[in-house]
């Protein structure tokens, strides 16, 4: 089940991301067109443009539907653009072409940074079958109609988290999350801003945004972040030492 963008309370954020993608794509194809008409007006270059159109069509679908394969294609596209940047300098020696490709690469970096958050792409260690080394944290979740259900915090970055539950929650629902650790006293307030289910039988994965509106909530989040990073490093060291 993919994230339904129309139901996201972060729809405006996602629209900005799509605008970034469109600008990146415009600069890339502007550079390809400039290169084609000035330096490579031949069938091979035309085939390269057609291939780029097909690649970007697939790339856009991955980004629009928030597929995890977006990151694989981002690496492929980034390597292509780096190759074009080097060619514009050492083969064509054209600063305009270099500038267009460089700006396109910079926008690609900003795009990836904007999407690298549990709200859009929660990182879940499905590949780690040994729970001793899986980087997640048991929690209890409280809301209006749910009192103390167990879940797991599977990701924590940029004041947002990935929370897995078997219960079906609504977008925009307010939560209180209580981690199973003595390092943090009290609960953390959060809001469900995205939702996905990877396959039938697996829990829902919710992107939650923490509400750090006062000093106590900011302190609790800071303690949770420190504990999370410490545990992640400790589990990684233990895994490789064993």
What report would you give on this structure?
The chain is 50% helix and 19% strand. The protein has helices at residues 11-38, 43-64, 69-90, 95-115, 215-241, and strands at residues 137-142, 147-157, 160-165, 174-179, 188-197, 204-210. The protein has a six-stranded antiparallel barrel with strand order 1-2-3-6-5-4. Strand 4 and strand 5 (188-197) form a beta hairpin. The chain is elongated and about 65 Å long. The two termini are 37 Å apart.
How many extended strands? Answer: 6
User: What is the chain-wise order of helices and strands?
Assistant: HHHHEEEEEEH
SSE class: alpha+beta
Instruction: Note the overall shape.
Output: elongated
Output mean pLDDT: 82
Q: How many strands, which pairing sense, and closed or not: the largest β-sheet?
A: 6 strands, antiparallel, barrel
Oligomer: single chain
Radius of gyration from CA coordinates: 22 Å
Distance from N terminus to C terminus (CA atoms, Å) equals: 37 Å
- Main-sheet strand order equals 1-2-3-6-5-4
Summed up, the helix count is 5
- Name the helicity range: 40-55%
Beta-strand fraction estimate:
15-25%
């Amino acid at each position: 089940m993919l994230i339904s963008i129309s139901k996201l309370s972060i729809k405006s954020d996602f629209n900005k991301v799509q605008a970034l993608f469109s600008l990146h794509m415009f600069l890339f194809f502007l550079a390809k067109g400039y290169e084609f008409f000035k330096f490579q007006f031949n069938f091979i270059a035309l085939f390269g443009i057609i291939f780029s159109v097909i690649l970007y069509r697939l790339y856009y679908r991955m980004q629009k539907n928030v597929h995890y394969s977006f990151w694989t294609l981002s690496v492929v596209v980034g390597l292509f653009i780096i190759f074009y940047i080097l060619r514009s300098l050492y083969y064509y020696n054209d600063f305009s072409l270099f500038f267009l490709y460089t700006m396109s690469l910079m926008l690609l970096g900003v795009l990836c940074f904007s999407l690298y958050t549990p709200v859009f792409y929660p990182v879940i260690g499905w590949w780690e079958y040994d729970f001793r080394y899986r980087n997640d944290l048991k929690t209890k979740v409280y809301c209006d109609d749910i009192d103390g259900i167990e879940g797991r915090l599977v990701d924590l970055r940029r004041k947002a988290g990935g929370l897995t539950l078997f219960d079906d929650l609504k977008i925009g629902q307010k939560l209180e999350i209580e981690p199973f650790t003595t390092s943090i006293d009290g609960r953390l307030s959060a809001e469900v801003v995205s939702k996905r289910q990877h396959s039938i039988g697996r829990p829902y994965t919710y992107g939650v945004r923490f509400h750090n509106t006062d000093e106590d909530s900011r302190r609790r989040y800071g303690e949770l972040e420190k504990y999370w990073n410490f545990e992640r490093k400790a589990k990684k060291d233990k895994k490789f030492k064993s």
